[in-house]
Specification:
This protein is of the alpha/beta class and 277 residues long. The protein contains eight helices and 14 strands. The protein has two domains: 69 residues, 2-Layer Sandwich (Alpha-Beta Plaits); 156 residues, 3-Layer(aba) Sandwich (Rossmann fold). The longest helix is centred in the middle third of the chain and has 13 residues.
Length: 277
Amino acid sequence: MDFIQVSITAPAELVDILTAELSQYGYDTFMETETGLEAYTTEDVFSEAYVTSVLERYNQGGQLTYETQKIEKQNWNAEWEKNFEPLLIGDVCSVRASFHPQPEHVQYDIIINPKMSFGTGHHETTTLMIENQLTVDHTNKRVLDMGCGTGILAIMACKLGAANIVAVDIEDWTVENARENAEVNNCAGIEVRLGDVQQIAADEPYDLVLANINRNVLLDDIPAYSQKLLPGGFLVISGFYTEDLELIQEKAQSADLEFTSVRTKNNWVSAVFSKRP
């Protein structure tokens, strides 16, 4: 499926709130620009009427205009390859594409060829998730990665010693991309499935659940994640803003999860919860 790029001209003080508004309607990739922001969503989700209604609500703060552009998958791939720079997370984890040279003196070397999938480590939420993973014991654990994107978190779990890993995403090209990345990283044992939370309904419990998705999906699915966690197991989540943390915590608490820790970066959050005995 192709993507729609929405380029919005807006005052800097409105960029965060417009990002938050659009993220509630299926936009999952954003980039600040000198004149405002660019937001991306799939072609089936894009609604010109919705974008117009959002901008009309905030137009008193400045002159808001937008343009759209259809982004085809093969063009997106080329852009990724041109712009994807190697990344070092926590001084121990390198994230790079296969065309970058292998770094020296890093403990974990992850190769990601992202194509159209979300999750290269460059977005704050992916970086925060990996930083949290580095604090959780994965050795011989059973791990679930919901909304796996490129498979980067499942691959990190593999490199941290997880024994059994299931990765799930709703997009078929993402599933294909995650399988390719798992194989490139010698983590071919990662099981990648197409689907949503229903895919795990019959699974045995997990020691660790990872979910880097968005606020609304998390609020809907946290109870299902909790049901699939062993007592004492961990849920590590991201994809929401600091102002949503209290709501996420309330949902987690109602699902027998105890708040453990939180990391933030540029107003994005990754939180860790543990399953009560």
